[in-house]
């Protein structure tokens, strides 16, 4: 029949569901022109659903064409991302550069990489920490070997640092909080610095991670540092590396990862499991968190007279989404 009832009847006779009506928008249609807020939101969702279906159909079509062509299929196109369109940085490190090698041999971390010092870490907090910050510090101490947690009670950092140096601590980590939530991390390399200040976000404790593994063991983990390519990023990567012992204990199968992506440093702690000779699975142990570098200061912590090597100035530095500093 011309009224369109026949296709519906045939669908009902076949016992199947009637095909959903395809949304047809006019070529010049703009969702923003709809005045009613609820109607505008509803139409936007329908438009997004139609876009998703078209994208999936095009993907299936391309896959069938590639299967039909076999070995003659053209190589897959590399998708454009902010990461691979990054603006070139003139401070990008060349591993074979003599100047970089000289700086590594004479910087503050050289005694660690020359095996003259053994990492010994003090983890402390802002004054009178709340429960979430306390638990985060305790879990962080199980990730970093030879680390000790000390809770401050009104003691200034300028008084803590000389005591740390006298007791042979090589690094000091301070976890700051705001409204009961950890929001800052200060990492100071002892005795001569440097000191880095990070914004701390997306903290997830072990009980908040789904499908987590058993508690971590006391074995020294392996350390993975990804995408620290500039001179500044190289310094930050060496600072993270100096927190862990030189020789990881592979029998523990634990890995600590610092992954830099668009100047955000994502930390993950995993245990890998050999399922067979060819398959390896990983279990996240936690905690997990994200760091964003705010400043790098020469020497130990000095908020008043400290000399800063690098400070993140948002209005001046964040003019391009494709410009990164680490």
From TrEMBL:
Gene: Rpf1
SMART domains: Brix
Residue ranges, compositional bias (Basic and acidic residues): 65-74
Keyword Ion transport: no
GO MF entries: rRNA primary transcript binding
UniProt entry tagged with the keyword rRNA processing: yes
The protein's name: Ribosome production factor 1
GO biological process entries: maturation of 5.8S rRNA; maturation of LSU-rRNA
Source organism per UniProt: Tricholaema leucomelas
Family annotation (Gene3D superfamilies): Probable brix-domain ribosomal biogenesis protein
Any one annotated GO CC term: preribosome, large subunit precursor
InterPro entries with a match to the protein in the record: Brix, IMP4/RPF1
Subcellular location: Nucleus, Nucleolus
Highest rank taxon of the organism: Eukaryota
Region (Disordered): 1-30, 50-78
UniProt keywords, alphabetically: Ribosome biogenesis, rRNA processing
Task of the protein: May be required for ribosome biogenesis.
Signal peptide: none
PROSITE patterns recorded: BRIX (PS50833)
Domain Brix: 119-302
Pfam families: Brix
């Amino acid at each position: 029949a011309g009224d369109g009832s026949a296709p519906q009847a045939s669908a009902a006779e076949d016992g199947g569901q009637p095909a959903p009506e395809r949304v047809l928008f006019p070529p010049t249609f703009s969702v923003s022109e709809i005045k009613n807020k609820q109607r505008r939101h509803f139409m936007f969702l329908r438009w997004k659903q139609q876009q998703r279906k078209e994208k999936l159909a095009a993907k299936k079509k391309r896959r069938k064409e590639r299967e039909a062509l076999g070995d003659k299929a053209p190589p897959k196109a590399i998708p454009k991302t902010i990461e691979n369109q990054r603006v070139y940085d003139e401070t990008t490190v060349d591993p074979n550069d003599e100047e970089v090698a000289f700086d590594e041999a004479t910087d503050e971390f050289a005694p660690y990489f020359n095996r003259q010092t053994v990492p010994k870490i003090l983890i402390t907090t802002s004054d009178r920490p709340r429960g979430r910050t306390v638990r985060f510090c305790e879990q962080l101490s199980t990730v970093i070997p030879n680390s000790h947690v000390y809770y401050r009670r009104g003691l200034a950092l300028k008084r803590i640092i000389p005591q740390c140096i006298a007791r042979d601590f090589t690094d000091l980590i301070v976890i700051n909080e705001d409204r009961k939530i950890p929001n800052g991390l200060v990492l100071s390399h002892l005795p001569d610095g440097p000191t880095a200040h990070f914004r701390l976000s997306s903290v997830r404790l072990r009980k908040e991670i789904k499908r987590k593994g058993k508690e971590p063991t006391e074995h020294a983990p392996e350390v993975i540092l990804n995408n620290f390519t500039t001179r500044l990023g190289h310094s930050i990567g060496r600072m993270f590396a100096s927190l862990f012992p030189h020789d990881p204990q592979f029998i523990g199968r634990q890995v600590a990862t610092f992954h830099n992506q668009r100047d955000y440093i994502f930390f993950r702690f995993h245990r890998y499991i050999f399922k067979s000779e060819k398959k390896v699975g990983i279990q996240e142990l936690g905690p997990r968190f994200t760091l964003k570098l705010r400043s790098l200061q020469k020497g130990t912590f000095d908020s008043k007279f400290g000399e800063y090597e690098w400070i993140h100035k948002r209005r001046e530095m964040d003019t391009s989404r494709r410009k990164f500093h680490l």
